[in-house]
Amino acid sequence: QVQLVESGGGLVQPGGSLRLFCVASGFTFSSYSMSWYRQAPGKERERVARIRTDSTTVYYFDSVKGRFTISRDNAKNTVYLQMNSLKPEDTAVYYCYAGNGAWGQGTQVTVSS
Fold first, then answer.
1. How many CA atoms lie within 13 Å of 68's alpha carbon, on the beta-carbon side?
2. Which of 55, 75, 101, 113 has the greatest CB tally within 10 Å of its CB?
3. CA distances in angstroms from 79 to 24, 44, 54, 71, 110, listed in the order given
């Protein structure tokens, strides 16, 4: 059974940091690109970052460049999203997405003082 399980979300003050985790199972993780998306209330889901199978090519949404870092560990079937200098506008549910079309259930990130 293909499964993606996110964790690491929470409440953080502006300027703070969080690290999101997404653990994959049920498919050959190392064969697929992985992405993080987010969806804020009343807004469309948007892709935040993407990483290819061998980590050599990444993509970042303009508003998170220089603040967020995506990485992966194929030995652990895990993709990470390190989020620094968080802003209130980063508040959203963050989803993990695999190149085979699988989605995780999401983890809430709230940036507020």
1. 26
2. 55
3. 8, 23, 12, 6, 20
User: Which pLDDT value is given to residue 7?
Assistant: 97
Tokens at 88, concatenated = 């209130």
- What beta strand segments (E) does the chain contain? 3-7, 10-12, 18-25, 34-39, 46-51, 58-60, 68-73, 78-83, 92-98, 107-111
Residue range 30-67, pLDDT digits in tens:
999 999 999 999 999 999 999 999 887 789 999 999 99
Listed in sequence order, the residues at least 6 apart from 52 whose beta carbon sits closer than 8 Å to its beta carbon are: 33, 58
Q: Give the separation between CA 4 and CA 32, rounded to whole angstroms.
A: 13
